[in-house]
Amino acid sequence: MANWIENPDEFPKRIAFDFENYQTIHPFKIKNSRDFNDEIISSIMFFSLERPADLTEIAYRLVIDGLWTPDPVNTNNYYDAETGVSLSKVEIGSTLPVVTGTNSESITRFIYNGESGKTVRIGGTFTNWDSWIYELEETSPGFYEISIPLPQGKYYYNYFLGMKAITDKTNPEKAVTFVDNHDTEPGQALESWVLDWFKPLAYSLTLLRKDGFPCVFYGDYYGIPEKGISSKNDILKTLLKVRKYYAHGEQYDYFNDRNLIGFTRLGDYEHHDSGLAVVMSDGRGGGIQMNVGKHLANTVLYDCTGNLSETVYVDNDGNGIFYCKDGSVSVWIKQGQAVNRIFTAVFLSFPSPPLSPGRVFLSFSSGHSHGIINKTA
């Protein structure tokens, strides 16, 4: 597990910057990783700075034990004769974001980073998925780009190396995620069917985490009787409701064990009693101490999947120990918040209307991972 300490009095390390004239002294945060005996096994101190506009380099100095000092692990240190102190400097380069995005009202710039000397093409809903119309230009080694005029709207796309489709790495949070689809089901050319026992774990990862737009396969929701595949709609209905009502707020991962992992969503004030904890294992079950935030502090959480009947008390700091059984997943939400609210599955054809974080794209036939560009006026 890991915990976060934000009290600056607990460790005398601070930082100040030139663009603030060193007038504001910022405290560091510290992240402690602990074992299951609550012993600290590693620590890291850090400060997250929102990048100031129009700056290509930043000078800074540290306060350690009450004394000004340059950064001891930064080799780019220098003496400032004007102030008479030693400073550290970090170069942050151009402020132009090297990511796919709209750079005018009608032009969208697509960016691909990869191996140099390749032929990279792009295809999407704006080409009827024809990947031979547009080819990206390699403007520097391994850096490819193309600008395409696109009218207002939402577009799905992939890059292509030959016939291989590649999702845009500069646009990761906008990828469509899926567990299975019509191409991977038994008997198809790309068969790679996910086993039934693992599907609740896989869908918990795609439906309850912060990134991506999940795609629930029709065959998982309704079953494929002619192939002997049963419906998974009991667990899917539960997870879809949890996604809609409780999977909100910041996300923290607890991936310290190769077989037993967990993550939490801290909830927000727009969704009453939102927030959750998820623990899953592909081997032996167990527990993980995790923090679900102040939003769920001093409450009792229960496993809405029904896999465990015990409850978990969350203390004043938002900490609790959450469990799962062998080879299963448990999803913990606030007790008294049943997942039997009115629910209707809506099936959308592809391409779909705009997707919000609380909506789910259920697909009959399109389950591939795509990038999404949303052009607005």
Layout: helices, strands, pairs:
Layout: E1 2-5, E2 13-17, E3 26-27, E4 29-34, E5 40-46, E6 57-64, E7 67-69, E8 77-80, E9 85-91, E10 101-102, E11 107-113, E12 120-124, E13 134-135, E14 137-140, E15 143-149, E16 153-161, E17 164-166, E18 176-178, H1 199-208, E19 213-217, H2 218-222, H3 233-245, E20 251-254, E21 260-265, E22 276-281, E23 286-291, E24 300-303, E25 311-313, E26 319-324, E27 329-334, E28 361-363, E29 371-375
Parallel strand pairs: 18-19, 19-28
Antiparallel strand pairs: 1-4, 2-3, 2-6, 4-5, 6-7, 6-9, 8-9, 10-11, 11-15, 12-13, 12-16, 14-15, 16-17, 16-29, 20-21, 21-22, 22-27, 23-26, 24-25, 24-27
Helix pairs in contact: 1-3
What attributes does this structure have?
Immunoglobulin-like; 377 residues; 38% strand; 7% helix; disordered N terminus; six-stranded antiparallel beta sheet; mainly beta
Give a quick summary of the entry:
By secondary structure, the protein is mainly beta.
Describe the structure.
This protein has 377 residues and is mainly β. Among the domains are: 2-91, Immunoglobulin-like, CATH 2.60.40; 101-170, Sandwich (Immunoglobulin-like), CATH 2.60.40; 251-334, Immunoglobulin-like (Sandwich). The chain is 7% helix and 38% strand. The chain has three helices and 29 strands. Strands 2, 3, 6, 7, 8 and 9 form a six-stranded antiparallel sheet that branches. A hairpin with a 7-residue loop joins strand 24 (300-303) and strand 25.
